[in-house]
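COMPLEX REQUEST
Ligand: magnesium ion
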Amino acid sequence: MSEETFINKVIKGIGVSSGITSGKVYLLERGRVAIAKRRIREEHVEREIQRFRHSTKSAVEELNDIKGAISDDEIRKHAFIIDAHMLILQDALFLNDVVDTIRTEKINAEWALDIVVSKFLAGFEKVDDAYLRERGQDIKYIYNRLIRIMVKGKESAIDAKGIKGKVIIVAHDLSPADTIQLNLNRISGFTTDVGGRTSHTSIVARALEIPAVVGVGNIVSLVKNNDTLIVDGDDGIVIINPTKEVRKDYVAKQLRLKTLKREFLRIAKLKSETRDGFQLKVGANIELLAEMELVERYGASGIGLYRTEYLYLSRKTLPTENDHYHVYRKLAENNSLSYITVRTLDIGGDKFVSHIEMPKEINPAMGLRAIRLCIKETGLFKAQLMGILRASAYGPLRILVPMVSGIDEVRTAKAILKECMDELKQKKIRFNEGIKIGVMIEVPSACMISDILAKEVDFFSIGTNDLIQYSLAIDRVNEYVSYLYEPLHPGVLRLIKQTVENAHANKIEVGLCGEMAGEPLYTPMLLGLELDELSMNAYAIPRVKKIIRGLDQSHCKELLAEALIKDSAKEAEYMLRKEMGNLFPDDFIQCYEE
Ligand code: PEP
Ligand code: MG
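STATUS: Structure written out below.
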């Protein structure tokens, strides 16, 4: 807690949930509980094991109470995260690991838990992919709860009764259980020292529409209870004790955003069609079933990319065919979407799961990744394909195979899929025999042979995140070369163009599901390229739809032709910014000639 009172201090973090709010600080200072590490005598082993088992039982009870107290339907939808935490707390492998450590090492329960959790987290910390790395956070929340129960008897809950008016929670970190407990009428936002966009806490905040800024670094040490804060979840800014003038500016911004949001939700329901009648599908990229509700609200017509890597996490064993089936069936049974694209496992490279044995590779981005791994580990692949096929009886599922670099991979994947289909037929299990299979076009060679690939599959989805990485030879997780990550690079635009032309010449649809799809500045390029679908994170949909509806495709084709003859991405971007600034002065900053 700070001794000093700051005035108008602006701190930058990561805006993870849109909106602006202001209120009094409620400092949730749980602090770190120091754990004693003790060796114990043989006769105390059973007592320690009981202490540990008792703490897991109490933790489950606490979480059950939190769940039981949820009165709001909107919040109840997110209680599955609490369920996931409860499952880990009851997971036999996890419990036995700690119990065995107490027994074999003859150490106290806190120390044993610390060893088991550290081992687990070490696996997560090696991961470059932010989303997967964040999953280790769930284990930390459980660990902290158990340690507090063992040391203090219980986890300290949020209790902001003593503070008048609206409250903003300031904490080192918040667990999803904390976020679910936030009383929406009183707590209007939160900000934390740590965290990232893909943490569950951030996902819950977005779903509950609570403005939030995380990863602020040291906010806990800069504020005290009753300081006033502004939390700007759009720009990722926190202001401590703003002056009257600043507060006035923010009230105006808040009003503008509210109007904009209403407008976005209105646009979300409208057709994605240009002024001159070119229609394309706008889909959503998701990673969790819980995101489905957002997908509908923000106006997606389908799921262009369901990343299934999350299914392989927060568990110690591989998901079985049944595990896959149950999740995909839930997806499939949603009846407001016209297509749901399930991408098969894309592990390897920058994404990694501790319980899949992977070789140590010097260059994992070009190593045993995605379809290459699935073809090698057919058991793993088949379990997923069987799950998708069985669920396909219930809704419009399609299969998307990532990281294809040549035709043989596609033919092998299709042969394995056929084996799965034959097996299901033999067992007389229903599935959609006409299920569509597509490939991700994200390796330059796939663009170059897209005429050949198009004859083998039902659709393409261009993954520009990887396509840019591989075509421009820049590691997508290396900050030193991130300045070279240029979607408008003429090389990238030419590769996309070639792919779309080959898809259409062979009468198959082609979508684009990299981050580029959700960036409104690039929308005219993608319309000019005549893509059939753009798939993006749900929040981006209304903004992109607004731009689509304000453009003529004929003009986009002219802009694309102009970009394609520019020498560099910078020149193309300048041209585009200038044009978009003129066409949409409210959405793009005007760009003037020097
Ligand atoms: C891509 O590469 O563009 C893509 C959408 O897939 P991911 O980001 O999961 O690699
Ligand atoms: Mg990819």
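REMARKS: The longest strand covers residues 20-28. Residues 84 and 314 are 8 Å apart (CA to CA).
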